[in-house]
Amino acid sequence: MKSFCRLMFTILFVLAGLVHLEHRAEAAAVNPAEVYTYEKMQADIVELAKQYPVLITYKVIGKSEYGRNIYAVSLGKGQTNIFINGSHHAREWMTTTLNMYMLEQYALAYKSGRTIAGADVRTHLNRTTMWFVPMVNPDGVTLQQFGLKAFPSSAHAGLIKMNAGSKDFKRWKANGKGIDLNRQYPADWANIKSNPGKPYYKNYKGPQPQAASEVKAIIKFVNEIKPASSVAYHSSGQILYWKFHQTGALYDRDHQYAKTIGKMTGYSLVYPGARPSGGGFTDWFTDTYKLPGFTPEIGRYAGETSLPLSEFQTIWKQNQGVGLYAAGIGYSLSQAKSGSKVTQATNQTNDAVAKSRKLRSYYSGNIKSVIDFKVDTDFAKVYQNAAKSIAAAETLLKGIPQSDQNRLKGVLQEAYDHKTRAAVFIDTEKTGAQLTAMNSELIKLIDAGILDEHTVEAYHKISYQIKKAELFINKLYGPHVRDIAAEKYVLPAKITKETVIYEISRYMLMEEIQINIGDGKLDLVESQLAELNRLERRSAEIKEAGNKLYPGRYRELPGFEAVLAAIKQEIMKEYEALKPEVEQPEEEQVQEQEGSTQEVDPAVNTELEAPSEMKDPEAGTIQTGETEAETSQTEAVPESEEQL
Fold first, then answer.
1. Is the pLDDT of residue 622 over 60?
2. Beta strand extents in 36-148 (DSSP E only)
3. How far, in Å, CA of 226 to CA of 217, rounded?
4. Among 285, 316, 425, which residue's Cα sits nearest to residue 95?
5. Model pTM greater than 0.85?
6. Is 413 a residue whose pLDDT tops 70?
7. Rounded Cα distance, 439 and 458, in Å
8. Residue 579 has what pLDDT?
9. Which residue, among 328, 322, 333, 320, has the nearest Cα to 294 in the 3D structure?
């Protein structure tokens, strides 16, 4: 009895295991034992994305000529992209089955932690993302499998004509418009052989490269993901295409990869002649990106039709490791390229630092006197070389890993510092040259004895430019450089300004007095005349104080004084004619009144080291005229070209 119970328990256990395995088999999305249609592929893509949401995503990358979706499915988590596709040709739809089955089996292996063909699936999918376009030609596949009934009646006559009058589409190879998609890529397209010259069930290369919407979608997608290696599956013949115009090191590299795939699959390598017929996907990919692209022809030669379903299990055994091997190739090449990019970026960063260091002698080291403060041809050339080298380094930094970017940006900071200091020097020299030119123009007016509105305008412009120059000078690198720049540009301008400040103030005040006389504001005129007397005394005092510091540089201004005297004489004549007959204050009272308004003027300070420290009180204390402070703040001082 016990033996019977043990036997029944064993049977039940085995049956439970079989049921479990059956359920697992039913849970698999991709069934390679059935004709694999466009609709089945759509459903399986959605199902796999649900089962493996962290590992699998999908998107539509384009439409076929008849509006069917072209799907791209991603598998993996790595930054390096790999590209695998199938069904460029309609009758080769078993390559779609292989794409989808590979996708699912790799996902299962990743989840369970097992290997495939000796390769660790988790390692490969953590390093790379494998992109599949399982069905490049959904129209052609649908026509080959279902015939005319899957297409609008308006297209039937044309399809039959392209099929040489036959309603049997089992041999159909082209897309829905009679164009061979694997002859549509811009790789020696003009020299493609065996072209029928018109839409046909096979081999028509189209009116021009990329005429077919399906090929446009693939090229756009590949240019977006920039895969490091690619595999385009075709059928049939158990051969491997791998070469298209590679030479030298590229030939040797791809030949070694192809021989490994040949051993894995048992497929024979094809060695095309010197002028292979191009237009294929891997022809274009290899030629454009200089990266390996492989075209396996799966299954035993089946003639002009699809492979029998019985072939699939053998095909899977032959190709189960190919996708992972392609991923390994892509990752290795990507790492080598990344390492090379880091090296290039490092070298370029060091070059930028070296070139920028040469700027220091121009913006600081060689500046010993005012003669040295200049931007000559050599300075400008060194600056441009440094700027170009920095820009080149910045471009290379964008293409390397973030950790390397951060490290090299720290190194590049020295180059930025030198360039910024040089830019400030250049801006200061430019601003200082403008100040020197303005100073010369004002001196010309002084020498000519011209005191009018143009002279006042020139005075205000030079006042503003002095402040602007001082802003730039304060940003220069090194106190000795700042002192020299101030001596060269600001000091001469300030001396000119302070030489004429009280003459300009008197001129502006007398303009106000004339207006007030015309308006009959005689009480205000009287106080302004007292202020005018004070400014006349200050004209002499500031020159005396300035010449103690800089002998002979604060000149007398007989021309200006003659103009001012004439204006004052006219004012007094008008004022005397209008003022009422009142008792005039005694002379001592006038002097007492004037004396009571006098104050210590900060513009006269013989303890100051230079007139650059003097103030312009009169231009700021005239109550009825435009003040110096108001004029000097009418514009914002622009920053340097480095926006410091």
1. no
2. 56-63, 69-76, 80-85, 115-116, 119-120, 128-133
3. 14
4. 316
5. no
6. yes
7. 9
8. 79
9. 322
Residue type (1 letter), 229: S
Phi and psi at residue 179, in whole multiples of 5°? Answer: -110, 130
Q: Residue 387 has which token pair?
A: 């700027």
Is residue 204 helix, strand or coil? Answer: coil
Of 286, 283, 293, 296, residue with least CA distance to 240: 296
476-534 tens-digit pLDDT: 999 999 999 999 999 999 999 999 999 999 999 999 999 999 999 999 999 999 999 99
State the number of CA atoms in the 13 A half-sphere of 227 facing the CB. Answer: 29
For 487-518, b where at least 16 C-beta lie within 10 A, e where not — what string? Answer: ebbbbbbbbbbbbbbbbbbbbbbbbbbbebbe
What tokens were used for 422? 């040089």
Residue with tokens 């299962």: 108
Alpha-carbon distance of 183 to 355, in angstroms, equals 50
Taking the C-alpha atoms of residue 348 and residue 404, their distance in angstroms, rounded to an integer, is 13
Are 281 and 183 contacting, i.e. CB atoms less than 8 angstroms apart? no
Angle of helix 38-51 relative to helix 138-146, nearest 10 degrees, comes to 120
d(CA 457, CA 435): 14
Cα–Cα nearest to 624, from 553, 521, 533, 547: 521
Give yes or no for a contact between 148 and 245, defined as CB atoms under 8 angstroms apart: no
The token pair at 563 is 């103009």
- Among residues 345, 347, 341, 223, the alpha carbon closest in space to that of 288 is found at 223
pLDDT tens-place string over residues 586-603: 444 444 444 443 333 333
| pLDDT value at residue 581 | 55
